[in-house]
UniProtKB/TrEMBL annotation:
<keyword id="KW-0566">Pantothenate biosynthesis</keyword>
<keyword id="KW-0436">Ligase</keyword>
<protein>
    <recommendedName>
        <fullName>Pantothenate synthetase</fullName>
        <ecNumber>6.3.2.1</ecNumber>
    </recommendedName>
</protein>
<feature type="binding site">
    <location>
        <position position="176"/>
    </location>
    <ligand>
        <name>ATP</name>
    </ligand>
</feature>
<feature type="binding site">
    <location>
        <begin position="30"/>
        <end position="37"/>
    </location>
    <ligand>
        <name>ATP</name>
    </ligand>
</feature>
<dbReference type="GO" id="GO:0015940">
    <property type="term" value="P:pantothenate biosynthetic process"/>
</dbReference>
<dbReference type="GO" id="GO:0004592">
    <property type="term" value="F:pantoate-beta-alanine ligase activity"/>
</dbReference>
<comment type="function">
    <text>Catalyzes the condensation of pantoate with beta-alanine in an ATP-dependent reaction via a pantoyl-adenylate intermediate.</text>
</comment>
<keyword id="KW-0963">Cytoplasm</keyword>
<keyword id="KW-0067">ATP-binding</keyword>
<comment type="pathway">
    <text>Cofactor biosynthesis; (R)-pantothenate biosynthesis; (R)-pantothenate from (R)-pantoate and beta-alanine: step 1/1.</text>
</comment>
<dbReference type="InterPro" id="IPR004821">
    <property type="entry name" value="Cyt_trans-like"/>
</dbReference>
<dbReference type="InterPro" id="IPR014729">
    <property type="entry name" value="Rossmann-like_a/b/a_fold"/>
</dbReference>
<feature type="binding site">
    <location>
        <position position="153"/>
    </location>
    <ligand>
        <name>(R)-pantoate</name>
    </ligand>
</feature>
<feature type="active site" description="Proton donor">
    <location>
        <position position="37"/>
    </location>
</feature>
<keyword id="KW-0547">Nucleotide-binding</keyword>
<dbReference type="Pfam" id="PF02569">
    <property type="entry name" value="Pantoate_ligase"/>
</dbReference>
Length: 306
């Protein structure tokens, strides 16, 4: 595995390989890797000749009071995991490599980016869309891999790719979980043992959503209220977003007829945990097919919603 910090060096190396007809898959990450990231890598390896993983803790997507400076980092351990996983190139730029001058350009999907997690983290998704655009420009992958755990992120990146006709296929990969159901996340290391035990309320709330919908509950507001009450049974959990939205567009829905996503953003202690599940009346299930199905940029399927 070769490690790059320089945009130009990575680009020149990839250009030569692309001229030979090799396909390139990109897995963007912020590092401190776990089995969820490795699943993205495995999918990328299965579908591409060359796999590039980026590790960059992107300052643009952190608010001033957020955890940018304490975000967990261990590049040596990450590199060993990626070597083991068969990655070809690790792109690990410093802030000075990625942003040699203060960024004056922003890529934003403002309506979608201000909703849900974006309401709690103003500016976050503009930071994500900007860095992902830049990574796409640097690597120019045919395919890029993202985790379904960050459901809203996938919806926003898909929309950005489609609106700007970026020639990248976006693949969403199912969430990898711990044995008790908690979604793996780099920030889980912030949890104290007591908070870690309490955090299981998050996937349990998604099970509860599935159960309630399977029983026939179809009013979206009522489901949100019941899930908020369910979360409140755990004193360490503070729900910040409990939302039932159209699974494809994230638009608010009144009743659960077409597939909806139950999106949770829950604070446990000072750690924010993110999780979701797609449910749909009698088609309820863990298979978040809506977000996983990919469309090629510029070729939206028939009947795609606005
Ligand atoms: N448990 C998981 N299963 C599958 N993919 C995941 C999982 N956790 C993260 N990913 C995906 O890995 C990519 C990189 O995510 P990132 O480096 O932010 O990790 P993270 O664990 O989500 O970190 P954080 O705790 O900061 O949210 C994203 O596309 C993300 O959705
Ligand atoms: C996509 C991403 C790497 C952009 O910084 C980040 O938002 C993440 O890790 O999900
Ligand atoms: N996994 C999303 C990156 C972030 O929370 O900033």
């Amino acid at each position: 595995m070769r490690v790059f910090a320089s945009i130009d060096e990575l680009r020149h190396t990839l250009d030569a390989l692309k001229r030979q007809g090799r396909t390139v898959g990109l897995v963007p990450t912020m590092g401190y890797l776990h089995a969820g990231h490795i699943k993205l890598v495995a999918r990328a390896r299965a579908e591409n000749d060359i796999v590039v993983v980026s590790i960059f803790v992107n300052p643009l997507q952190f608010g001033p009071a957020e955890d940018l400076s304490k975000y967990p980092r261990d590049l040596e351990r990450d590199a060993a995991m990626l070597r083991q996983a068969g990655v070809n190139f690790l792109f690990a730029p410093g802030v000075e490599d990625m942003y040699p001058r203060p960024m004056k350009t922003v890529v934003d999907v403002p309506d979608l980016g201000r909703e849900l997690e974006g309401e709690v983290r103003p500016g976050h998704f503009a930071g994500v869309a900007t860095v992902v655009s830049k990574l796409f420009n640097i690597v120019q992958p045919q395919t890029a891999y993202f985790g379904e755990k960050d459901y809203q992120q996938v919806v926003i990146i898909r929309r950005m790719v489609e609106d700007l006709a970026m020639p990248v296929r976006v693949i969403a990969v199912p969430t990898v979980r711990d044995s008790d159901g908690l979604a793996l996340s780099s920030r889980n290391v912030y949890l104290s043992p007591e908070e870690r035990r309490a955090a299981v309320i998050v996937p349990q709330t998604l099970d509860e959503a599935e159960r309630l919908v399977a029983e026939g509950l179809s009013d979206a507001r009522e489901l949100e209220a019941k899930l908020t009450a369910f979360l409140s049974c755990e004193p360490l959990a503070k729900p910040e977003v409990v939302a039932v939205r159209d699974a494809e567009t994230l638009a608010p829905v009144a009743s659960i007829e077409e597939p909806v996503v139950v999106a949770l953003f829950v604070r446990v202690g000072s750690t924010r945990l993110l999780d979701n599940r797609v449910v749909a009346g009698n088609r309820t299930g863990r298979d978040n097919k809506i977000v996983r199905d990919s469309r090629i940029a510029g070729q939206p399927g028939k009947g795609v919603k606005k």
